UniProtKB/TrEMBL annotation:
Organism: Bacteroides xylanisolvens SD CC 1b
Protein name as it appears in the record: Uncharacterized protein
The organism's place on the tree of life at top rank: Bacteria
Length: 38
């Protein structure tokens, strides 16, 4: 039972980490585009 909880928590952490990384990348790309535009 506890192992299942640990796995679910790990999955949540991984998902959050992935979301944060994709957001950072999008933010960087947007900044880069705005820099090129000016």
């Amino acid at each position: 039972m506890s192992l299942v909880i640990v796995l679910i928590n790990m999955q949540k952490l991984f998902k959050d980490f992935f979301v944060v990384n994709t957001r950072k990348r999008k933010y960087k790309e947007r900044n880069h585009v705005s820099l090129l535009g000016t």
